[in-house]
Amino acid sequence: MTDCVFCKMVNGEIKPDTVYEDERVLAFRDTNPQAPVHVLVIPKRHIATLNDLDESDAELAGALLLGAARVAQQEGIADSGYRTVINCNNEAGQSVYHIHLHLLGGRRMRWPPG
Amino acid sequence: MTDCVFCKMVNGEIKPDTVYEDERVLAFRDTNPQAPVHVLVIPKRHIATLNDLDESDAELAGALLLGAARVAQQEGIADSGYRTVINCNNEAGQSVYHIHLHLLGGRRMRWPPG
User: Fold this and answer.
1) Helices (DSSP H) in chain A: which residue ranges?
2) Which of A52, A54, A56, A84 is the mutation pick for testing B, counting most B CBs within 10 A?
3) I want to staple B114 with a disulfide (CB 3.0 to 4.6 A). Which of A31, A109, B64, B103 is the partner?
4) Low-confidence ranges of chain A (pLDDT < 70)
5) CA atoms within 13 A on the CB side of A82
6) Quick one: pLDDT at residue B1?
7) Phi/psi at A50 (5° precision)
8) d(Cα B31, Cα B24) in Å, to the nearest integer?
9) What SS3 class is residue A103?
C-alpha cells in the first residue's frame, strides 16, 4: 500500500522510533503517548482492520500479542502490568487503516477502557 | 485449573451467556458490561496472562482476535466499530488470571483507553 503510513515504516521510507522487530511484526513508540510506555505493534503485511483477518492469518494475529508481550518485557512493565488495545473502525477510533495494537503501561490503567 | 472460574465455564461447571464457541476459544457476555456489546473471548486452554504465551501459542493467541472479529460480525458492530482489550497483571486491572479479551462496541469509545 503505497499511501499507507505504516507500510512506509515497514519499507523504511519513514523511520519510526522502533523498539522491536521480527519477520512478522514491527513495534515503535506512539508519537502521541497516553502512558509512560505506549508502543504500537503492527503486522508487516498490510491488513486494514481486524475484520479483514481470515482464518489463515491466525498466526500473524497472534504474533501481534506475542510481540506486545516481548516489548512489555523489554520495557520493564511485564510484571507491573500493561494493556493491549486494538481499535476497529470509526466508533472505536481507528485512525490508520493498517492494523495496529496499542501497548500501554507504566501507570495504573482505568476502567472502562475508553 | 480446578479453581479457575473461566476453566469452569469451559468445562461446563458454570454456564456463561455464551455467544460463540469453537475448538480453541469460548466467548460469552461480561456480567458487568461497559458498553452495549461487551463480550469476553477466552482460550479454552488455561493460560494465566499474556506473559505466559510462548511462540508455539501464536495461533491460539490469534484465535482470540479472530474470535472477537467473528463475534463483532454476529453482534452487528463489525462495520460501526469495536475495541479489543487485554489486560495483563495488576496495573492493567487484570481480574481473572486466565487470559481474556474484552470486545466492546455499540457506542463511541473514548481515548485514552483507560
Assistant:
1) 5-10, 58-75
2) A84
3) A109
4) 1
5) 30
6) 66
7) -60, -30
8) 22
9) strand
